Amino acid sequence: xxxxxxxxxxxxxxxxxxxxxxxxxxxxxxxxxxxxxxxxxxxxxxxxxxxxxxxxxxxxxxxxxxxxxxxxxxxxxxxxxxxxxxxxxxxxxxxxxxxxxxxxxxx
Length: 107
What we know:
mainly alpha; 2 strands
């Protein structure tokens, strides 16, 4: 995703919305609640010169996160070259650890 000089957080949000709509085909991208988004600092070295910095975002609303990852799964099935990572907050990790045994027993 191209980067413009002096890019604000609102500009990064617009880049993400465009990505959601054009690449992932998420219809509700304009209404998604982003908890925050920004570009990572540039690492020193010749490899990173001239390349746009990575974007970090957090989806604040759980249904938005679910919709995003459903579309991402479809996208990854057709495009193996993309790398998108998922990290959950600590509260989600604790909730998952509590629910995992219950899920195992139910199966």
